[in-house]
Amino acid sequence: MLWEPPNKMKIVFMGSPDFAAVSLRELVKSGHDILSVVTVPDKPAGRGRKLTSSAVKRLALELGLPVLQPEN
To answer: Domain of 52?
Structure first.
């Protein structure tokens, strides 16, 4: 049996690395209200220097959550 929080929380999630996406997914599964997700701006990566999104942004968009990407 998983631990269940006593109350539903309103959360602004902040994260970028791959392991932060795991935390975001668990928060959503636990029924909390994710108001928005804050992550780093898309950055050029690879030989073609194509813009690449963070794992957290990709998951947030997949889940239909609003994403904020401040420059600094």
So the answer is: 10-68
- Cα–Cα distance, 48 to 20 (Å, whole number): 26
In a domain, 1, yes or no: no
Task: Tell me the pLDDT tens digit for each residue of 19-29.
Answer: 999 999 999 99
| CA dist., res. 20 & res. 47, Å (int) | 26
How many angstroms separate the CA atoms of 5 and 49, rounded?
43
For residue 37, tell me if it sits in a domain. Answer: yes
* Count of structural domains within the chain: 1
Of 66, 64, 65, 56, the C-alpha closest to 14 is 56
Q: If you compute the radius of gyration of the chain from its CA atoms, what whole number of angstroms results?
A: 14
Which pTM value belongs to this model? 0.83
